[in-house]
Amino acid sequence: MQPNASAGGFLSPKQIKAIDQTARRILKHIGVCISDPEMWDILEAAGARVNRSKSRVYFEKKWLDRYLALAPRHFTLYSRNGNNDVHLGSGNVYFSNGGRVFRILDMSTGGYRLTMLRDVAHTAALVDRLDHIDLYIISCQAHDLDAQNYHLNDFYYAFNHTFKHVMGGCDTLDGVKQMFSLASFLAGGEEYFKAKPFVSVITNSVSPLTMDTEALRILKFCCLHGIPATCAPAPISGATAPATLAGTLAQTHAEALAGVALAQAFAPGAKVLYGAVPSTIDLRNMEYTLGSTETALLNASIVQIAKHFNLPVYASGGVTEAKRPDIQAGCEKTFSNLTVALNGADLIHLAAGMLDSGNSISYEQYVIDDEIIGMVQRMVRGIQIDPDTLAFDVIKKVGPGGNFVLEDHTVTHMMDEFFYPNLGIRSNFDIWEQQKRPSMLSRANDRVKTILQDGQEGLLDQNLLVEIKKKFPGIISL
């Protein structure tokens, strides 16, 4: 069977054009359901066609193209210390963990439990210390928090345990306002935060073709206040999208384009990611399958489509159906992370820590996934070819029958040419036996204990902590 993919991706230019044309037909003739009269007013004033009786907004080609052209093709998700800035649209591939799960695999007991606020602090501390995870997404639902100050607390504990950029979903407009007030205080004022925003927000459309009112209000607030955002559709092929992958891609693209255009209608030039989280369901038993091969294929393809329009794109990889850090998890995570990364995603979210089809996390899985991501990054980097790396001079010097171990050329390149695992076993059998047969999982468990022990105190200055808790009395202590 001949492969269908073009060189450099799964979709040919002709196929991308067909998907884009179908998505535009969807937006023009079917439209998007928006039920908020305030949004109707805003969009009509911006020139969109609104049918109020049907709660539909239609995206004509000229209108859509005008607002898509306003979206920035590159922008930065800043870290607080400047050491881990994420430059979207630069051609680099960045990785993050995933968020808002309800359960965690507790390796100390071997069972699952509900996630708590301390798990936000712990996962933020892990991401801060893991080299290959570039930013932190609020990882889980804190079941020990009241709704009133939910986002104030989870963003606070994220900020206190990582200097890396923090991204998170906000359920309510009040929640995103809490986060913005706290972030601006940490930055020294709103103007300083807007200059280098170190936090961003995930919003989601509702597939098929629906924009929730609260999500739109959150997106609008973010756009007006300089907070980078994504409005990421998450259609499920065979359930909330067509069973054909092509149909799912067309619908996903339509929903993602609508999110980008709406952001620009709210605030021209707003920093918005083309977001997409397409996935599948096992239609034999109706089980959600975020770790399926087709999910990897969909996400890699949606990256190609977004890149065709030079839009920074947020897609998904590193997901699995496995319930434990096991062989299945390793296979599925590596495959999807590599597939999406090689297609050039700007940001791959869900790439670390996730189990159970995105419903659970594991501290140990964070550490294992950091190693998987390191290997994927090495693959993405490829092979550098220049006169020095082609090594003619050193080959001539060593000559037939020699060896290269002690050559300066070897010493020069030994650290930048190879990926060296921290968890993988590379010792011979006898040494492995002497070391009491370590595994990647046992080494990951040791690494988790070390990081969490070192990170107990948090990163924020003690005097600043006192000021924060005076200004934000809704913050609770762990």
Features:
4-stranded mixed sheet, 18 helices, alpha/beta, 2 domains, TIM Barrel, 478 residues, 44% helix, disordered N terminus
Please explain how this structure is put together.
This protein is α/β, with parallel strands linked by helices. It has helices spanning 13-30, 37-45, 61-68, 117-129, 150-159, 173-187, 190-195, 213-224, 245-266, 293-308, 327-342, 363-381, 387-390, 392-398, 408-413, 429-434, 440-454, 462-471; strands at 32-34, 49-51, 56-58, 75-77, 86-88, 94-97, 103-106, 111-114, 136-137, 166-169, 199-203, 210-211, 229-231, 236-237, 272-275, 279-282, 287-289, 313-316, 347-352, 354-355, 360-362. The strands form 5 sheets. An 8-stranded parallel beta sheet has the order 6-19-18-15-13-11-10-9. Strands 2-3-1-12 form a 4-stranded mixed beta sheet. Strands 8-7-21-20 form a 4-stranded mixed beta sheet. Strand 4 (75-77) and strand 5 form a beta hairpin. The relative contact order is 0.13.
Beta percentage is 5-15%
Number of strands: 21
Which fold name corresponds to the CATH topology of the largest domain?
A: TIM Barrel
Q: What characteristic shape results from the CA principal axes?
A: globular
Q: What number of domains?
A: 2
Helix content: 40-55%
Rg computed from alpha carbons, rounded to a whole number of angstroms:
23 Å
The CA-CA distance between the termini, in Å, is 58 Å
- SS summary, helix count: 18
Class inferred from helices and paired strands: alpha/beta
Q: Report the biggest beta sheet as strand number plus sense, adding barrel if it closes.
A: 8 strands, parallel
- Output mean pLDDT: 96
User: Any low-confidence stretches, pLDDT <50, length ≥5?
Assistant: 1-7
CATH superfamily of the largest domain: Trimethylamine methyltransferase-like
What is the CATH architecture assignment of the largest domain?
Alpha-Beta Barrel
Main β-sheet, spatial strand arrangement: 6-19-18-15-13-11-10-9
CATH class of the largest domain, anyone? Alpha Beta
